[in-house]
Description:
The complex is a heterodimer. Chain A is an alpha/beta fold.
Amino acid sequence: MSETAIRFAGATVRYAGADRAAIDGVTFDVAAGETVVLLGPSGCGKSTLLRTVNRLVALDAGRVEFYGSDVATLDAVELRRHIGYAIQAVGLFAHMTVAQNVAVVPELLGWERDAVRTRVDELLELVRLDPVRYRNRRPRALSGGEAQRVGVARALAAKPRALLMDEPFGAVDALVRADLQRELLRIVRELKTTTLFVTHDVAEALRLADRIVVMRDGGIEQVAAPDDLLERPATAYVHDLLHAGDLPRRA
Amino acid sequence: MSYFLDHPARVGSLTLAHVELVAVALIAACAIALPLGLLAARRPALSGWLLGALGALYTIPSLALLALLVEAAGLGPAPIVVALVLYAQFMLARNVVAGITGVDRAQVDAARGLGMSPSQILVRVEIPQALPVMIGGVRVAAIASIAIATLGGYVGAGGLGVLIFNGLTLHQPSMIVAGSLAASILAIVADGLLRLAERSARAALA
């Protein structure tokens, strides 16, 4: 068994005024190098759970460990610099060039100027954007797919120990999404980056995940590898979720 | 027109004095409005209350406010500068709040998630993004201040108001026209320069 990268132990979050907990006693481990997809409908708590890892959301009970340390005991800002973060809206900084966006975390960590420059080009090549053409572009001059590639490059720039992705490909069209999914698979395999990925798209979960965590109303419904999930859904809910979209099965 | 053309040095020196009054007031006003606006942008509850209070202040007739300030601070530049600082607060703070709260939430979320500290988020993301709107506030405040500052001529603060009030006392309409014209030209120039600054700040975002 490989090292545990992220451990959720009874993780619970209650938002003020909500009638039930956003996440309620969630417990599972993510192994180092593993890609785990949190799957479920909107409002099931998957984004909240993801955001407890880099402390964008604070726990009300339970704990989240990052490589053995309770994240509540770590400095939140420092912790985040070692965890990649990519979101659906991308959030590229509009007043910075592509290169400046990718360089943000290495610069926060105080890397040397030359090391940053080399790293930016490496990352742009990794996400298959020609550095010469894209380095000095502004986010506004990018297509949705290109912007998301830059978002992924920015998240990976400082060689994070884990990558958190919150529906990163939710806003691009199906062809671009499939393309980005292939690229992400290639990248996480190449880099062996521990990845926690949120989506409501069943096909996306099946394509990307080593294991899928199916969530419902703030709790876990089932944790299983994609094949197991398809063959042995633990509950009617999981079965219905998997087949709601008349999913054409691959393989 | 005749006074304006016949006494260029006099009009020029009063214009400079006018610029000085307005510039000093605007710089002080920005130094107050920026932290005030940033604080209000962070606390929506405070923001309504603060902008309401500044808006109420803004509705006080300038002559009445100036009279009160002269009572308190005496004649000279002080009352007019204080009045300008007070009036500008509403326009400046409102635009700081609008600029900061208008920043794309995704960029702020990304900045937090990537590990920027709150002050880094402010300086590296929020202020650059809000700058065009904030400069817009300075522009509006500058134009209003140039007009209001002519009251300085009445309280011994100097500036272009001197021509207007002396013209009134001496029944010299051409002096009044000269003071008004110079103030208008000043306002147009300030508007143009700040529009340029606003545009270049906006271009930096595109």
